[in-house]
TrEMBL record:
This is Coenzyme A biosynthesis bifunctional protein CoaBC. The gene is coaBC. Pathway: Cofactor biosynthesis; coenzyme A biosynthesis; CoA from (R)-pantothenate: step 3/5; Cofactor biosynthesis; coenzyme A biosynthesis; CoA from (R)-pantothenate: step 2/5. Its EC number is 4.1.1.36, 6.3.2.5. It holds the Pfam family DFP. It comes from Aminobacter aganoensis. PANTHER family: HOMO-OLIGOMERIC FLAVIN CONTAINING CYS DECARBOXYLASE FAMILY, PHOSPHOPANTOTHENOYLCYSTEINE DECARBOXYLASE. Residues 188-398 form the DNA/pantothenate metabolism flavoprotein C-terminal domain.
Length: 405
C-alpha cells in the first residue's frame, strides 16, 4: 500500500464538510497511513472528537493550552511528527489565519510552526470563496508553497446553493496526498497520455439508453497511476458515479461518438489507453420524444447500427500515438479474441480480461488480466484494480522510455 507507514496530521476546520473528513480518515487508514487529528473549536460544532478519535484510533487534539497535551506532545512536535499536514475542510477563516500568520489556537499554531508540506481542501459557500479577501488569501498561501485540492463546483450541503466551493471528495484528497508524498522518479513527465474509462450511454429516447456494467474503476485508477508517474493525463470518461481522479484533466462524455470526438481532439499524444467499455452498437432511430407505451401496439422496433471503433480509429490514425493500448473484455475465448483484436485494431498490446460470470470483473474491485502483444502473453495474477493500474502504468513508462520526446 502506497501510504503505508505515512503519518498524516489532519486539521479539521469548522464547516459543514467536516463530516466528509470522517470518511477521509477511513480512506487514509485503509491505505496504511496513520492519522492524527486536530479539531478547531468550530469543527466540534459539526462533528465530535469522539467520532474522530474512534476513526483515527488516537487522541484528538483540540486545545492549544491543554497542559497535558502540551506536556505529552506539544504543538511543535505535533506539527513536525507528520509527513504531511492536511487541512480538510479548510475554512475561509483558517485560510485567512495562515495567510496572515495568526497562531491563536492549536490549528493555526501548528500550521505556522510546521516545516512539512501542507495541503488544504477548501470548503465554503461560493460567495465566501469568490470574495476578494479569500482570493487574496489563497494567492498568498499558494505563493508561500501551500498546496490546494479543490474546491469543486457543484451543489452545496446548504439548501438551494450551488457553485464553486464544495470540498473535494475524500478519494480526490487521498489522490492529492499520494501525489504530494510520492518521492519516486517521474519517468512519464513530459508525456501526454489519453485514457478512456467507463461505459457509454446510447440513447433510445430522451429518458432511456443502452449501457453496460462498466464502473470506470480500472480506467480511473490507471489515469491516476499514470499521473503519479508524472504524465499529463487526459481522461475521457463515460457516465460513472466515481470521482474524477486527482491530478488528471477529465472530459465527460455520454455516447461512443462523443467519446471518439473527444479522443480525436486530444491527439497528438505519446500514448493512448482505451479502457472504456464502448457500446458496439447504438440505435439508428433514437426518438426525440419519450416513446409512449401504446396498448396493443407492442414494443418499438429498435434499429441498431455499429458505433465507431475508437481503438481501431486511433490505431490506424495519421496522428497515431507511439503507444496504443486496448482493453478486451471477453466472456469466452479471452486469449484468442485478444490476439485477433491486436492485429485488427493496430494496437501495441491488448489487456484482456475475463468478464464472464466467474471472472466477474465488471463493476468489481479486482481484475485478472493477460497482456497480449506480438511478443507473447503475460498472465498477471488476480489483483486489486489499483495494483493492475500501477503495473500497467509502469509497463507503459518502460515502453515509452526508449522514445525521445
Ligand atoms: C452552519 C454553518 C456552516 C458553516 N460552514 C462553513 C463552511 O463550509 N466554510 C467556512 O469557511 N465557514 C463555514 N462556517 C463559518 C465557520 O464555522 C466560522 O468562520 C468559524 O469561525 C471557522 O472556524 P475555524 O476556521 O477555526 O474552524 C459555517 C458556519 C455555520 C454556522
Amino acid at each position: 500500500m502506497f501510504l503505508s507507514g505515512k503519518r498524516i496530521l489532519l486539521i479539521i476546520g469548522g464547516g459543514i464538510a467536516a463530516y466528509k473528513s470522517l470518511d477521509l480518515i477511513r480512506r487514509l487508514r485503509e491505505r496504511g497511513a496513520s492519522v492524527r487529528a486536530v479539531m478547531t473549536s468550530a469543527a466540534q460544532e459539526f462533528i465530535t472528537p469522539l467520532s474522530v478519535g474512534a476513526l483515527t484510533a488516537d487522541h484528538v487534539f483540540t486545545d492549544l493550552f491543554d497542559r497535558q497535551d502540551e506536556q505529552d506532545v506539544g504543538h511543535i512536535r505535533l506539527s513536525r511528527e507528520a509527513d504531511l499536514i492536511v487541512v480538510a475542510p479548510a475554512t475561509a477563516d483558517l485560510m485567512a489565519k495562515l495567510a496572515n500568520g495568526h497562531a491563536n489556537d492549536l490549528a493555526s499554531a501548528v500550521l505556522l510552526a510546521t516545516d512539512k508540506k501542507v495541503l488544504m481542501a477548501p470548503a465554503m459557500n461560493p460567495r465566501m470563496w469568490a470574495n476578494p479577501a479569500t482570493r487574496r488569501n489563497r494567492a498568498t498561501l499558494e505563493k508561500d508553497g501551500i498546496h490546494f485540492i479543490g474546491p469543486m463546483k457543484g451543489e452545496m450541503a446548504e439548501s438551494n446553493e450551488a457553485g464553486e466551493g464544495r470540498m473535494a471528495e475524500p478519494l480526490q484528497i487521498v489522490g492529492a496526498i499520494e501525489e504530494l508524498l510520492d518521492a519516486r522518479p517521474k519517468p512519464l513527465s513530459g508525456r501526454k497520455i489519453i485514457v478512456t474509462s467507463g461505459p457509454t450511454h446510447e440513447p433510445i429516447d430522451p429518458v432511456r439508453y443502452i449501457a453496460n456494467r462498466s464502473s470506470g474503476k480500472q480506467g480511473h485508477s490507471l489515469a491516476a497511476a499514470l499521473a503519479r508517474l508524472g504524465a499529463d493525463v487526459r481522461l475521457v470518461s463515460g457516465p460513472v458515479t466515481i470521482a474524477d481522479p486527482a491530478g488528471v484533466k477529465t472530459v465527460h462524455v455520454e455516447s461512443a461518438r462523443e467519446m471518439r470526438d473527444a479522443v480525436e481532439q486530444l491527439l497528438p499524444a505519446d500514448a493512448a489507453v482505451f479502457v472504456a467499455a464502448v457500446a458496439d452498437w447504438r440505435t439508428d432511430n433514437a426518438a426525440g420524444e419519450k416513446i409512449k407505451k401504446v396498448a396493443g401496439e407492442g414494443p418499438p422496433a429498435l434499429q441498431m447500427v455499429e458505433n465507431p471503433d475508437i481503438l481501431a480509429g486511433v490505431g490506424h490514425h495519421a496522428k497515431r500515438p507511439y503507444l496504443v493500448v486496448g482493453f478486451a473484455a471477453e466472456t469466452q475465448d479471452v486469449l484468442k479474441n485478444a490476439q485477433a483484436k491486436l492485429a485488427r485494431k493496430g494496437a501495441d498490446f491488448i489487456v484482456a480480461n475475463d468478464v464472464s460470470h466467474e471472472g466477474g470483473v465488471m463493476g468489481g474491485d479486482r481484475n485478472r488480466v493477460k497482456i497480449v502483444s506480438k511478443s507473447g502473453v503475460d498472465e498477471w495474477p488476480d489483483l486489486p484494480k489499483e495494483e493492475v493500474a500501477e503495473r500497467l502504468a509502469q509497463l507503459i513508462a518502460d515502453r515509452l522510455r526508449t522514445v525521445t520526446v
